[in-house]
């Protein structure tokens, strides 16, 4: 597990884009990385890696002038502790703006002092202080891991005998691993398992779908697997010991 955080910084307008130019023709758009920045000794003496996603070029009507920064590890821990020590929202937003200015100030068309280049709102997630987020833990695949699929299957199974199930982006089907779709599907699957354990009756349509899913069990070497696997590629019912 690693610690991670998301930082959203919004501006009056996406100053980094050229006016009257289609997104696909912009000189800057999408995804940006700062691999080992050396120009922020006060806020980043460790030269932590940064990356951001430009949310202004999302399809309409979802586009808005916001940069989403992903940070992790020691950097996320440091930011969480600093923000946790500040009492007001304004203090927190001012700190975020100062800490990330060395990076967004290097985007195209930035002008010092221009109101369009000054953040109007900043927000950082603080999962490190959230017990329901595992105190900031986040599933990741470490270098050297050899049987990640088995680890995922074990986590996917959970501990139904103790009333403990896991859902989320890393417990869904492998084809959608790490996505919101995977999180949704895994939650849907766990919901069915919990309903079954507590004797809840699903609607006729849901029951028919579940039966259809069960009929689509995967075959390996001509035989049905011992795991009840649905069409989305993962087990809906508790996995049997092989």
Question: Could you walk me through the main structural features you see in this protein, from its secondary elements to its overall organization?
Answer:
With 242 residues, this protein is of the alpha+beta class. It folds into 2 domains: 2-133, Polyamine Oxidase, Chain A, domain 2; 144-224, no CATH class. 29% of the residues lie in helices and 14% in strands. It has 5 helices and 8 strands; from the N terminus they run E-E-E-E-H-H-E-E-H-H-H-E-E. The protein has helices spanning 73-85, 89-104, 148-157, 180-197, 204-215; strands spanning 2-10, 31-34, 50-54, 66-72, 121-124, 137-138, 219-220, 223-224. The strands form 2 sheets. Strands 1, 2, 3, 4, 5 and 6 form a 6-stranded antiparallel β-sheet that branches. The protein has a two-stranded antiparallel ribbon with strand order 7-8. A hairpin with a 2-residue loop joins strand 7 and strand 8. The chain is globular and about 60 Å long. It starts with a strand and ends in an 18-residue tail after the last strand. Residues 210-242 have low confidence and may be disordered.
